[in-house]
Amino acid sequence: MSEQPPDSGAPEGGRRPGEHEPTLEWFADLKSDADDPELQPVDPAVTQAFEAIIEEGDKEEAAGIAIPAVPGEIVPTPAAADAFAQAIAAERAEPGASGSSAASAGASGSAGAAAPAAPAGSAERAERVEEGSPDEAAATTSQALNVLTDLAVDPELGAQLKAGGDPADVPEPEPAGEPEPAHAAEAPPAPEAETAPVPAATEAEPPAPADESGEREPAPLAPSAMTPPVVHETDTVAAAKVTPDRQQPYAELGMKDEEYQRVRDILGRRPTAAELAIYSVMWSEHCSYKSSKVHLRQFGDKAPKTDALLVGMGENAGVVDVGQGWAVTFKVESHNHPSYVEPYQGAATGVGGIVRDIMSMGARPVAVMDSLRFGPADAADTQRVLPGVVAGVGGYGNSLGLPNIGGETVFDACYAQNPLVNALCVGVLKHDDIQRAIAPGPGNRVILFGAGTGPDGIGGASVLASATFDDESQQKRPSVQVGDPFMEKLLIECCLELFQEDLVVGIQDLGAAGVSCATTELAAAGTGGMHVELDSVPLRDATLRPEEILMSESQERMMAVVEPEKVDRFMEICGRWEIPATVIGAVTDSGRLVMTWRGETIVDIPPGTAADEGPVYERPYEPPADLGALQSDTPGRLTRPANADDLRNTVLWLAGSPNLASKTWVTSQYDRYVLGNTVLAMPENAGVVRIDDESGLGIALSLDGNGRYTRLDPYAGAQLALSEAFRNVAATGARPLAVTNCLNFGSPEDPGVMWQFARAVEGLADACQYLGTPVTGGNVSFYNQTGSTPINPTPVIGVLGVHDDVRRRVNMSFSSEGNVIALLGETREEFGGSEWAHVVYDHLGGLPPLVDLAAEKALATVLVTAAREGLVTAAHDVSDGGLSQALVESCLRGGLGAKITLPGDPFVSLFSESVARAVVAVRPGAEARLQALCEQAGVPVSQLGVTGGDSLAITGRGPEGDQQELFSIPLAELREAHERTLPSYAG
């Protein structure tokens, strides 16, 4: 899914003329359960004050004074308000007293009343933001969601209460006693909640300590506690029908005028607060792909014909046939913005979310990968974000017992304050085990199982993903979900057992938009209807209101559709795995998604309109204004190494540069071999995992991207990312089979960014069609920019390949003396966007290397055949850093040197980044067969030298054109340069 855009339609101040709903502060100051004052012990003095209110209200009622109220709620009379104020004043007058923070629970604010004070520790969050900035949009979105919780508060009553007037003077509201629509009444009611055993809750924190007199010292009192408590009335469908003119904060929630009007047209009335929450998030960029959908269709329109694709785009993840009755599902998604705000939890929950996507297809997850991008390695912000992200990826994956088999870690100034954290998961299953996200069969039960629903992550999709970042963005930390990998591990095993016993007819993970997304998508893909009792959702925070429950993105939750007669067995299995499970509703054939809250209908919508019929925009696009100048500034003007010493120093400089240096500091924090089926892992060309022990059937995966190439030419850049991943998979001996992608771009409202996106998608679709590798699914991440400066467009491409027998895989290491080293492919003078220009001169300009898909396809054929026939002992793709870096990595990986003679210009031979090339070490006696394979496929082949020794020795054409030894670098020196960089930055 893509990230949510900032609001562009709200007027100054984030409110519309005449809007009268209160703007509360709770959402802007979201907090974890641990520091939520509403969950802390209540101070006795405040309790007494509220009791005085209740007592005074009873007296008024006995006297026959009319008090408009909602059942179960309390509306204070003036006398009660006075009693409340007196209690507070008396409390403050006590020596050493500082008030009670718990009083804020009754001071949410009312229409026309002063906004309540922020909780302790959040005063600095009320900073002003520049008008029209995305940060302001995020803030107004937060306020809008606050407004949803109080949509039914009568503004006149609030004004009266603030002024101290008599509520009896306020006109009685019109009764909202209209019957529910016929279709809602006809739908079968949800069964009573059936709940599996739930682990014991943790004890509440102890009360505040008592002083010497035995009295507890009250906590500080929020200034807004002087404001009488507000009436909280649920905004029902019936109320929505009789209050059509009530203004709603749709613009602050990211909805345009026409989008909001379309919702009203669909429903024939204004939406309730809960319905508005659902439509706003389901129609967001994050969930609806409204800016990208018109371009993404090319992946389907241009999909190559293949029998391998079992499940394509549109499901939680694609599924491909890998032979012998086995299938593989894989997908990559982003968690970019949360990982900047809270690096550890942002990255950890990114892993957790993609793992649940794979689980929901019926597969056992078997491995993960990640593609990480940060600002400059020596930047203070990078040193804050990098360790947390790596720890989060490793901590969650390691706790799940999943090997991390590869990926990439890249540094570039364009990612400063906007890191990219793209996580991939792959799972295996049998063909008959595929599960779908559907809700078929009227009467089937809807079961929510996994972790409880809490306040963490509320607004994660609708607020965080719409924000650009600055130093104050860490204040948004509470919007990041909190992960529990141990719960997820239990959830994996529980789901696999449920699938094995055929207890599930439909399943969906709860990711972005939580319950809103799961219920609408399941219902829309099934028989069209669902009835949900929202107050049956198990909560970790009993104060959550319907809108918050619907939008919470609490982790480790799944939703299943189960036949009634299988519910008991479903619950039994969940109980054995200690997974809480609750029936919250039932499937219907009404064509409506109906939700109730405390017996009242708060949602009644056609689910397909939210899940599948969101707005689709054809945004204007044109090349960025600076593209021509950028492409004209070619690296040809840069001074090249003038002599052998300069060449030697350049090899060492590149080998130790942040992007090309060893990533052992990162990968050592990941368990790469847990489960025992990892065959190859980072820093190899691709990760390789065994699927079947007997036959050796396995898969290879590579995840690659290059933002500099795509900045220079988006069409070619996307194809170059695909070709590198394709080549990496083939280098291990696997046949490339299918593709997933994560498309990371700036704001789609910028025509230059939208042009980059459109061209990249077109290039990727065309290349996949040519190479015969269908796109099975993926993710779009927009709004990756700091202020108005977008990142380099960064499509990250994952390629899956199949090994008929992993015992014949090929690694990248030179490990056998005397093997001939050969270069496959053609070298051209190509330095646009190269690592050499980037590292030595911090230069970006010209054009990227020429794309040659025919050459890539031919090279892959040679590499796969050579591996199958055992012709090569090592193979390594040539990409970033050119031949120089490929040789360095192969020598260091195997601990064996090489003697190389360069053809042509030494500088071009060493550092050009021409594609469709690979270095191979040929098994003795196989040279002629390899030569014949290359000639048959039309792949140029040239002998470079032999493996051996303890140094990388380079011979080439000297200044006079004669052959001479240019330089030699001991492996110890190479290793020191290659391995010291990242630890020195990461600490």
Shape: globular
According to DSSP, the number of beta strands is 28
Give the averaged pLDDT, no decimals. Answer: 80
Secondary-structure content class: alpha+beta
Low-confidence stretches: 1-142, 149-193, 196-231, 461-478
Strand content: 15-25%
What's the total helix number? 31
Helix content: 25-40%
Strand order in space, largest sheet: 8-10-7-11-9-12-13
The multimeric state of the shown protein is single chain
Main β-sheet: number of strands, strand sense, barrel status? 7 strands, mixed
* Gap from first CA to last CA: 34 Å
In angstroms, what is the radius of gyration?
31 Å
Q: Could you explain the architecture of this structure?
A:
This protein starts with 43 loop residues before the first helix and ends with a helix. With 987 residues, it is an alpha+beta fold. The protein is built from 31 helices and 28 strands. Helices cover 34% and strands 18% of the residues.
